[in-house]
Amino acid sequence: MPRDILPEPPDELKRLSEALADRIRGEINIDGMIPFSRYMEMALYEPGLGYYSAGLHKFGEAGDFTTAPEIGSLFAACLAKQIAEVAERLGEYDILEVGAGSGRLAAGLLASLDPSRLPQRYRILERSADLRQVQEELIASSAPDLLPLVEWLDRPPDDGWSGVLLANEVIDALAVERFEIGSGELRQLCVAAGGDGFDWSIRPAPPELQAAVEKLKTDQPPEFMSRLRDGYRSEICLQLSPWLEALTAGMTRGLALFVDYGHARREYYAPERSDGTLMCHYRHRAHDDVFFWPGLQDITAWVDFTALAEASLDCGLVLEGFCSQAMFLLGCGLEEVMAGLQARQADAAPEISAEARQLTMPGMMGERFQVMGLGRGIGQPLRGFSLQDLTHRL
Ligand SMILES: C[S@@+](CC[C@H](N)C(=O)[O-])C[C@H]1O[C@@H](n2cnc3c(N)ncnc32)[C@H](O)[C@@H]1O
Predict the structure, then answer these.
(1) What is the pLDDT of residues 54-75, one digit of tens each?
(2) Closest Cα partner for 168 from 88, 254, 104, 114?
(3) Probe target for ligand 1 pocket from 46, 78, 127, 297, with the most ligand atoms within 8 Å of CB
(4) Which residue minimizes the CA distance to atom 22 of ligand 1?
(5) Protein residue with its CA nearest to atom 10 in ligand 1
(6) Position 10 pLDDT exceeds 80
(7) Alpha-carbon radius of gyration of the chain
(8) Which of 97, 120, 300, 344 could lock 172 by a disulfide, CB 3.0 to 4.6 Å apart?
(9) Hey, whose CA ends up nearest to atom 24 of ligand 1?
(10) Which protein residues touch ligand 1 with a CB less than 6 Å away?
(11) 325 closest CA partner among 263, 390, 259, 394
(12) Centroid of ligand 1 to alpha carbon of 164 (angstroms)
């Protein structure tokens, strides 16, 4: 989408973005360029200025994008069914939600779970101080009695907890490296100052990136990388494995559920996807101009679910299931949940049906989003993965 047809930000926000751009240029000035991962990190999380740190309105109609929990209550109500099944096996349990956004999923889950089977603690690990406050306000207004269950953490818990870890659309917000294949060598895409903003700059890939791209070929057909022509660009998330390790190290028993848009590796690095998967969201326009007003728009990269499954092996987790969001929600009992909600809120029945379509239709969220379950000591089967098994694609 060309830059000039994106909505113009108001002046006060442009000034915020310019302050962030100055800070990014300050880092670029040291070496002439910074890795794209550093640019993405600053654009999203630079204290006080990054997209997730500057107090902008991001979620829902008035923001830039709408996530599944923001559409209505169905998503949370279905996840609650999966949580209840795991809780049944665990007895007392905690929920750990990573990257809780506006807090809507937390509020929805606390409202949907059986009051006699609530978690001991609903813990939220949220990077953005601004969003923590938004989450607290939302939970305080929608479920004040349950607020005492909720606690915010500064780092992943290491106290030997058991329960369910949830991360909806969080992996796509982890900063990624961007690479290019050119004349038989691997290059790192970096960001340099250019014109009145930023531009791409290229240098030979450093050893860590070389090794990570080389590792992509593991268990793939021999032609996997050679199919990719000169000029092929894509992304890789180098922090995925240490991030998962840190998140799950303290989980003695439980299920970690990751919901995100992405693919298994073969589709992720398909020859036709020759410019990678970066996507920006600004006022409900999806586009690929990562240099458009840094700090004012979301920047995401799709998730390589094969990489997530590989990382889980290093953490001693078991791959419990991998399927589309549609099949996961249906497995959790979407139809029954929907009928129950519609019976209780007859006036809202058409909206509830529309929400179910948005969550499950292939062209909407149903197949673009995938769910992966990684477990420790909880056993099979899990209802969410009972209808579809896509693990053979990984
Ligand atoms: C796209 S939003 C998704 C929000 C929410 N899960 C939802 O579905 O509406 C990404 C969220 O992850 C948070 N986040 C990103 N990286 C994180 C990390 N390493 N640890 C904790 N939270 C993180 C962001 O601040 C934000 O709340």
Answers:
(1) 887 778 777 888 999 999 999 9
(2) 104
(3) 127
(4) 99
(5) 170
(6) yes
(7) 21
(8) 300
(9) 99
(10) 52, 59, 67, 69-70, 98-101, 105, 125-128, 131, 168-170, 173
(11) 259
(12) 17
Ligand 1 centroid to residue 225 C-alpha, Å: 32
End-to-end CA distance of the chain: 32
Of ligand 1's listed atoms, the one at least distance from the Cα of 298 is: 1
Percent of the chain with pLDDT over 70: 99
**Centre of ligand 1 from the C-alpha of residue 170, in Å:** 5
**Alpha-helix residue ranges (DSSP H) falling in 124-198:** 129-142
**Closest protein CA for atom 12 of ligand 1:** 99
Q: What is the pTM of this model?
A: 0.96
Alpha-carbon distance of 340 to 334, in angstroms, equals 10
What does the mean pLDDT of the chain come to? 95
Is the pLDDT reported for residue 101 higher than 90? Answer: yes
* Ligand 1 atom closest to the CA of 167, numbered from 1: 6
pLDDT, position 1? 58
Please report which confidence band the pLDDT of residue 2 belongs to, taking 50, 70 and 90 as the band edges: low
Ligand 1 centre to CA of 52 (Å) is 8
Is the bond into 381 cis (omega within 30 degrees of 0)?
A: yes
Question: Could you tell me if 55 and 319 are in contact, meaning their C-beta atoms sit under 8 angstroms apart?
Answer: no
Measured in Å, residue 126 CA sits from the centre of ligand 1 at: 7
Ligand 1 atom 11 nearest Cα: 99
What is d(CA 327, CA 324) in angstroms, rounded to the nearest whole number?
5
Residue identified by tokens 């990014």 is 24
- CA-closest candidate to residue 305, choices 250, 246, 373: 373
- β-pairing, 121-125 with 94-98? parallel
Q: b/e string for 127-137 if b means 16 or more Cβ within 10 A?
A: bbeebbebbbe
Residue ranges of E strands in the chain: 34-35, 94-98, 121-125, 150-153, 161-168, 177-182, 185-194, 197-204, 233-236, 251-263, 279-282, 285-287, 298-300, 303-304, 318-324, 369-376
Q: Give dist(CA 8, CA 330) in Å, integer.
A: 40
